[in-house]
Write a structure and sequence with these properties.
Elements: H1 2-8, E1 13-15, E2 24-25, E3 29-31, H2 38-42, E4 46-54, E5 56-57, E6 70-71, H3 80-85, E7 91-95, E8 104-105, E9 108-109, H4 110-115, E10 125-138, E11 141-148, H5 154-165, E12 169-179, E13 182-183, H6 190-196, E14 215-219, H7 221-228, E15 238-240, E16 248-252, E17 258-265, E18 269-275
Parallel strand pairs: 2-12, 14-16
Antiparallel strand pairs: 1-3, 4-11, 4-12, 5-6, 7-10, 8-9, 10-11, 12-13, 14-15, 16-17, 17-18
Length: 277
């Protein structure tokens, strides 16, 4: 992120979810006023292609800890055994984050405690796996495609899969192919951004193109003014679009500019929670 900040010459920049050190792929960044939308973008589902090595384990659950890999059992001879257990990792359930993670224990990142070889007890978190596909398997190496909720640890999946198979496993490689509506096809390589410098600003998407999964409504001039001051919106403040019965929606002014994000409140009222003007 610091590299992109220097390249663009923009100080206000944020990310929408971290990637593990060995991971590659899509990492949406937000700049300027769009940083106020980061929390909503972070919550979007993610899609990954993961390479899992079976037959060994590491303390970090990935190849970063490969120098201290511990031998496990014999990996499956073919894909059938893996296909039998994969459905148990689909759906919503509690997942145990890796001990080497940024999760905090009494204010201290878990990885700092793990590096000091101190006990690490990270609380399980609710995650959802919508799709889990075995794309290939050969000689103890499985390639998986995963579509999951935010907060899902692919490293934990690799470790847990190895435990379920009785042979151990760890994450050998990981690519995030999609983050919400952003894909590899529309992403810009970091090297291209650095090479372009300030000219890379032309690749920044307007805020109006973000969060398209949320319903959009157009406000009247008066409604846009009320929203910009954080005032509760009334039915007469809307010029177009369906807003009743929605928990959250995007607010646009008559010119088509994104004013902010509103959330439902008691009594059927909508309150702007993010203001972008």
């Amino acid at each position: 992120m610091a590299v992109v900040r220097r390249a663009l010459g923009i100080t206000r920049i944020g990310h929408t979810g971290t990637l593990d050190p060995l991971a590659t792929g899509v990492l949406p960044l937000v700049v300027g006023k769009a940083t106020r939308l980061a929390a909503y973008l972070t919550a979007d589902e993610k899609e990954y292609v993961a390479t899992v090595r079976l037959g060994a384990t590491t303390a970090t659950y990935d190849a970063e800890g490969g120098n201290e890999a511990q031998s496990g059992g014999e990996p499956p001879a073919d894909a059938s055994t893996i296909l039998d257990v994969l459905p148990t990792f689909v759906g919503t359930y509690l997942q145990q984050p890796p001990p080497f993670s940024a999760k905090k224990i009494e204010g201290i990142p878990a990885y700092k405690l793990a590096r000091q070889r101190k006990p690490v007890a990270v609380k399980p978190v609710d995650v959802t796996v919508r799709e889990l596909e075995l794309r290939s398997y050969s000689s103890g190496t499985a390639e998986l495609r995963i579509v999951s909720s935010s907060g899902f640890y692919v490293r934990s999946l690799a470790h847990d899969l190895g435990q379920r198979l009785g042979c151990g496993g760890y994450l050998a490689a990981l690519e995030r192919s999609r983050a919400g509506e952003f894909t590899l096809d529309t992403a810009r390589p970091l090297a291209d951004i650095v090479a372009a410098g300030a000219r890379a600003r032309q690749w920044i998407l307007p805020m109006e193109r973000l969060l398209t999964r949320l319903a959009a409504v157009t406000l009247t001039e008066e409604g846009a003014k009320r929203a910009s001051h954080g005032n509760v919106l009334r039915s007469r403040d809307f010029a177009g679009g369906q807003w009743t019965g929605l928990d959250r929606l995007r607010l646009f002014d008559p010119s088509g500019a994104l004013v902010g994000i509103a959330e439902a409140r008691e009594g059927g009222l909508l309150h702007p929670v993010v203001i972008l003007v």
